Amino acid sequence: MMNYIWLSLIVIGILVAVGTDIGEISSNKYQNGKEMKVTIRLENDVSKIEPNKKYECTILLDAHDYQSVYGISLTSERITQKAELLTSSSEQGALHIFIDEETPALWKDISKAQRNSEYLLSKVRIDGKNQTAAVSFDPVKFVRVSQVTNDGIIKYAKTSVELALGLIGIMALWLGIMKIADQSGLVTKLASLLKPVTTQLFPDVPADHPAMGAMIMNISSNMLGLANAATPFGLKAMEELNKLNKKVGTATDAMCTFLVINTSSVQLIPATVIAIRAASGSSNPTEILGPVILATTVNTAVGIIVVKILSRLRIFKKQLEVEG
Q: Cα(164)–Cα(161) distance, rounded to whole angstroms?
């Protein structure tokens, strides 16, 4: 089901992007092919601009010239931008306009379309006598589709593969440690320590019932981060709890309490999260142990309190009596 949901979201995203791009192309939002006048000031005094040279410069963009091309008003009368002029002749070349906080929003969008976050690449025709120039950009089309596909779908698909490969070694290490803990009897000892608590949490379940043993092993495995080992115990516990159920098809108090404890994710060693942090390049992937233990304690305590309060409400007891 989740696959269909994700596929639907991807298709909807692409369709919305295509529709937006068609609207921008029809309205010529980026004014493809149009030239705009700017003033060029070279950093060093140069008597004559020579071909095949690189010059550090500053460009001055007048608000009136910008509005005449794009139909958008600027917040300032004139904007100053650092740039780099690369000449192919004395009258034309390429201009790298460096992106900063003063760069107009539309130019920033064009730089994203050019897939360059540092500078905006433009063609330039130079009038060396009065230090003016006419700049133009390559045609910008299907910006949103590119963002959805390249910057969204493809980028994060690549990230997921890299992350999954990075998890292999870390997960193998932690699962190995947890397996040693299981075979050494640590899980069993932890289960014996939890037994007095579980008998209080599940008063309707006999202490020697198989459901109690399965629940204890499930909770113990989850606390040690043995998610794969905890799942069979959880299924077995629900199966055994259903045998004590007087009304099959209606969850008992014990079932609800056990489900809440599982949902609250009781963990002392969050092996999976530690592995993901390590694979993502964290300098200290285990520093989350304290906050995780605190969070899982609070989650579990609140969950148990709420489920116990709800189980005492007359509306639920009355409903069970009617169904019974």
A: 5
